[in-house]
Amino acid sequence: MTRCKRCLLPHNVPGAEIDSSGVCIVCRTRAPDDKHQSEQLREKRQLDLEKALEDCRGKGPYDVLVCLSGGKDSLYLLYRLKVEYKLNVLAFTTDVNIPDVAWKNIHRAIQKLDIDHLVYRPSAQFYRKLFRYLLMNQEARGAVYTVSYVYAPLFEGDALQVATEKGIPLVLAGYSPGQPEPERMEFEFSRKLITETDWTPPGLCESGEFPEGELARFWNPKRFPVGTCFPRYLAPFHAWDYDQENMIRKVHELGLVERRAHGNPIYSNYPINWLLMYSDLKHFGYNPYAPEFSALIREGKASRAYWYFAAPIVNFMIKHRLFLGRNTTEQMHQLGLQDNDLQITRSRGAYDPKID
């Protein structure tokens, strides 16, 4: 049995422990009241979110800043806040490695919803250097974890910077349940993380490859004057009901994407992510996103039937660099990398910022 017959968790994910009946240990040990407790937590978060959305009105030039990547979740988040909550929204995009499909989605949604949109285009040379270094010096959890959790704090920090400077009280991101890693965020970045912690990854500082000016790209609240008012940073889909397939359908019906396929995360994925998945499949033998999607399937937030067929197809495209998997070849060419450059050389947590 290569996958759990209930949640599709691959057998070679550490701790999967699929038994002779084909069920993983997570499904076997899930308590009957787990769903009830999860729903109670979601409802508690929803109350907090509703209060935050009400309290932010009229507190700045915009009520909220929304991190817009062009994927289904950030598009639908934009719609709900503007149309259903009637908030004054500023959409914000850090223009790094965003695919053409996602840009089409962004332009279409911004025009349809008539929302102000701020785009930040940082140095492409810095990101090329960063991605190349991280892929050649991955930490023990592999490429997706290493690059994503250095890359994501950069654009999260960009959003915090803009919101702080403009006096916007609330930053919202379209993270689906299970994103990012729970150790970084569950519904909200902690106040300590936003108001006291330097996000610069220690592993980059120690490498000697990145001068102070480049390291200063990371969020550091200590650069602001004492008494600066920092925004909250929330993930609404950790509080609202969430269904992945329903989200894809809705953004298409609302006209936020031209074709239904454009709302599918397979198509709107960052091009670099195909290379990251390729590296992790090479090192670990399973797709690093599989545990996340298995968790969504267990909770009834993603379709088992869809991912039963889609996951093997995606993995085939990645391994053989076909169709969308060709992004792997293109990204390796742009970064000047070969297969043997994709190396795990660092210990677990090498790039995690230290919380004082």
Describe the protein.
The chain has helices at residues 25-28, 34-55, 72-84, 100-113, 124-136, 143-166, 191-195, 202-207, 212-215, 244-253, 265-268, 271-284, 290-298, 304-320, 326-335; strands at residues 64-67, 89-94, 116-120, 138-139, 170-173, 232-234, 344-346. It has 356 residues and is an alpha/beta fold. The strands form two sheets. Strands 3-2-1-5-6 form a five-stranded parallel β-sheet, with helices on both faces. Helix 3 runs parallel beside helix 4, helix 3 (72-84) crosses helix 10 (244-253) and helix 12 crosses helix 15 (326-335). The model has no long low-confidence stretch (mean pLDDT 94).
Structure keywords:
15 helices; alpha/beta; five-stranded parallel beta sheet; 2 domains; 356 residues; Rossmann fold
Short structural summary:
It is built from 15 helices and 7 strands.
| End-to-end CA span | 45 Å
CATH superfamily heading of the largest domain? HUPs
CATH architecture of the largest domain: 3-Layer(aba) Sandwich
Report helical residue fraction: 40-55%
